[in-house]
Design a protein that fits this description.
Layout: H1 6-17, H2 21-28, H3 32-40, H4 50-57, H5 61-65, H6 73-89, H7 92-105, H8 110-123, H9 130-150, H10 154-171, H11 174-181, H12 191-201, H13 205-233, H14 238-254, H15 263-278, H16 282-297, H17 314-321, H18 332-344, H19 356-369
Helix pairs in contact: 1-3, 2-3, 6-8, 8-9, 8-10, 9-10, 10-11, 12-13, 13-14, 13-15, 14-15, 15-16, 16-19, 18-19
Length: 370
Amino acid sequence: MKKLNLGKSIIQKRKEKGITQEKLAEYMGVSKAAVSKWESGQSYPDILLLPELATYFNISVDELLGYSPQMSREEIKKVYQEFSHDFAVKPFEEVIEACKQTIREYYACFPLLLAMIQLLLNHSMLAKNEETKKEMLQECIELCQRVKEESESIRDIKNANIMEAMAEMALGNISQVIDLLDDQLIPYSGDDVMLLMAYQMQGENQQAKKINQIMLYQNVIATLTLLNNYLALHMSEAELFDRIYSQGLQVIEAFDLKDILTNAVFGIHITAAQGYLMQQKKEKALQALEEYVNIICGFKFPLKLKGNEYFNQVDEWLEENVIIGSSTPLDDISIKASLIMSLEANPAFEPIREEEQFKKLIKKLKEKLG
């Protein structure tokens, strides 16, 4: 992260102009000793002198201070990854304080704010008490509202609105979630197909193919996520439940999604197992959990968001368009713990906790994830 470095900036700019400390002191109306102290960091110019000093060097005050209120995409990815790892290995309070400091320093960098919102949302469950968790989520909401009010980017505003809804959901404020998202349920307009047609008419077939694949990728993942939720809503309807689960499996098979790192791919098996236990079908529940474990054991660490052989143009798009690139929202350490806990600490699996097959699945998962 960039820090104020006025002394080095003055030295650099003075040498670029080829002037002495005496010459600069004369222009600024101060002593040579004052300039020397500025450059050594022993003291700083009066705040009223900064515009005049910046004008003399023909730079902005921010440049003079060696400070940028913005971060590059690569810097944002790096900051996110470092904080995500810190949450896994360092004291929670220490990391939270560092996060707050970064937010203060880059309060006008909206892509960074969105990354920090995502970071806090993903790690709010680590808070040691409900009060701290609520404070984190409330800060997320306030940051989302700032982005929505101040950013000129439609993409930033949409992302902020979705994250604000996620924070409200975590706080249990369901009516606010509906208010934030309900107007998004509009009839299909065909704008995506129109964009593809425009590229084709312009003769840019490769770009049309790429965009088509990316849109298909997004919609397939969205469809599987919706099927997962739909499955959870029909646990008591055995016949329909079987059908929905089968449809989810067909989507995974048709697009070879087992290697795609998204909750819907492996989460649908957890949902299926919970439903089958509700229907008192232990054997089917254990079969679903075996599918879950097999998928997890097929992961290659370190994890990253990516496409597959079918979705072979997705990797570059993820890197360029997702706030944190292809990095996972959680550090590998946290992900491994979460994947194990989804099975081992899930109260829904209490009826099969002592089953030998269930114990073997947990053992296999732990051995694979270390």
